[in-house]
Amino acid sequence: MRSAAIFLLFTFAFMLNSFAQEIDTKKLDSFFYALKDQNKSMGSFAVAKNSKIVYETSTGYSALSPDSILASSATQYRIGSISKMFTAVMIFQLIDEGKLSLDTKLSKYFPQMPRAQEISIRNLLSHTSGLMDYVNDVVDKDWITNPHPAAELLDTIAKRKLHFAPGEKQQYSNSGYLLMGYILEKITGKKYSKLLETRIVKKINLKNTVSSIANNLGKEEAKPYRMIKNWNDIKDIYFPNVIGVGDILSTPADLLVFINALSTGTLISKASYAQMSTFNGRDSFGMGLISVPFYSQVGVGHNGGTYGSYSAVYYFKESGISIASCINGLNYPLNDINIAVLQISNGMPFKTPNFKAMQLTAEELKAYSGVYVNKMLPFKMTIAENNGTLTAQATGQSAFPIEAVSKGVFKFDGAGIVLEFNLEKKKMTLKQGGQKFIFNKQDN
Hints:
CATH architecture of the largest domain: 3-Layer(aba) Sandwich
Oligomer: single chain
Number of helices: 10
Radius of gyration: 22 Å
């Protein structure tokens, strides 16, 4: 549900010509074994070809305490914003049934919302409403980790001005999907969890997908962890705050059944699916789906991210390949994992990365220690050596470990961060997400 987890962008390079070949499951095993062996991820993964699941695996643990429980194909994960796909499907089901239309105004159900008479269901689905984001726009990011009644959530949205006029721009907003979850309940007179069960889960025989369960009450639910030397517990979003937005529990196998059923017309009409999967630009959102470019192919699907879980599900019509990832412990970029799985599944050249870090002495690490500043950025970066480990810490944030990959180059795979040091010039370059920033080391 966090905006940082929304886009998956692959670089176009060359045309694929190996759609018909078998998927190399041994190479997939080798890649996931390396992730597991180097503590790069804990989670479950699956691949389907022409709607048939041909590969499943799990790494690490669904829970580390009080008892260690290995992750398995039955482990359920919080899928974050992939939940929005389910909400969008049920909205389109009501449209197919004539109970709602894309032009229906928000004022019919929530007249207290700003400019509700101008905001349509179309705007809510496509993130063009202009509504504030009740998850990401609040100053206190821990606010969403504590329980809030529906009335308070609605009031939070209603009291804030729009970011822009409805339809003027496209900007990701969790608020639109919260409202659509409530609209589903108003129209049908049934709870969201029951609608999910009857309209999707039972219809396509999903085995491990549920909604409206509070944190860690599901029998098979994976607990979230963050890597700081070891896996550490995370306080995640309080999921009853985000029903219809990012609370659903599911598995990679169920997600593959879902996205393949969606793409083949089992859940909604062809006309509605065409609306869901129409994009205004290469990087834009459709109505509950995002476009996913991968070399010559363009797939559809969605990403999901909570404070402690990460997920993705994508379907590529050209090759018939669909993949799903559900992760409760991430110490390597999810984007890189998904690219690797797609490369292997499409028969492209792939070499498993060497995840092992260079070994440096405490004295060698101390040479990089210090406070680094960039006058254009509102924070400092503190680099410190602690018991043979080098850590980085931005002002006001938690410290995270960085690993040496070559002389003067360190990385933190969990956030896709690379730090390059020039000790002679007392400079550090931070690279992340295709951007780079140069910091100068402060004198003691």
